[in-house]
């Protein structure tokens, strides 16, 4: 299948306000207060990490470590750029620097870059500005044009 002469390995990774640690996500959601969104009344957010895994993730950290990307980082990990808002109300901000720290611990400083959007929430419009899109493409150009 495909082209056997073409390299199909991952060359670069960009993560935007992602869920990486399901145990952390499960705890964060469980401890979160009900939140109002738009014109809707405040309500407790469903614990999607637990729903996805089919178990209470925070009660099974050993098993859930198998779902954490940091468990699989090798020295061959591609250059990674992760962006997250420090005021994310859906995904715990600490998810992102935790993964960046793991990648850099295995691969050396600078393999992963953490860019924090101070005071920004999950999916804040600042992530989609022309300036940030330019930043993301610049990262890809730097990595892929080497």
The gist of it:
The protein has 146 residues and is an alpha/beta fold. The chain is built from 5 helices and 3 strands. Helix 4 links the parallel strand 2 and strand 3.
Describe this structure in words.
33% of the residues lie in helices and 11% in strands. The protein is α/β, with parallel strands linked by helices and 146 residues long. The chain has a single domain, classed as 3-Layer(aba) Sandwich (Rossmann fold). The model has no long low-confidence stretch (mean pLDDT 94).
Topology of this structure?
Blueprint: E1 13-16, H1 22-31, H2 48-53, H3 61-64, E2 80-85, H4 95-107, E3 112-117, H5 130-144
Parallel strand pairs: 1-2, 2-3
Name its key features:
146 residues, Rossmann fold, 5 helices, 33% helix, 11% strand
Strand order of the largest sheet: 1-2-3
What is the number of E strands? Answer: 3
**Apparent shape:** globular
User: Taking all residues together, what is the mean pLDDT?
Assistant: 94
């Amino acid at each position: 299948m495909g082209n056997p002469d073409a390299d199909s390995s991952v060359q670069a990774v960009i993560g935007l306000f992602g869920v990486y640690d399901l145990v952390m996500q499960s705890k964060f959601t469980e401890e979160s207060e009900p939140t109002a969104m738009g014109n809707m009344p405040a309500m407790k957010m469903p614990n999607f990490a637990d729903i996805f895994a089919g178990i209470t993730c925070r009660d099974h950290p050993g098993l859930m470590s198998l779902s954490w990307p940091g468990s699989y980082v090798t020295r061959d990990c591609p250059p990674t750029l992760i962006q997250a808002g420090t005021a994310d109300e859906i995904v715990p901000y600490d998810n992102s620097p935790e993964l960046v720290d793991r990648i850099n611990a295995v691969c050396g400083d600078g393999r992963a870059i953490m860019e924090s959007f101070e005071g920004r929430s999950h999916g804040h419009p600042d992530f989609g500005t022309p300036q940030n899109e330019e930043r993301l493409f610049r990262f890809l150009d730097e990595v892929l044009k080497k």
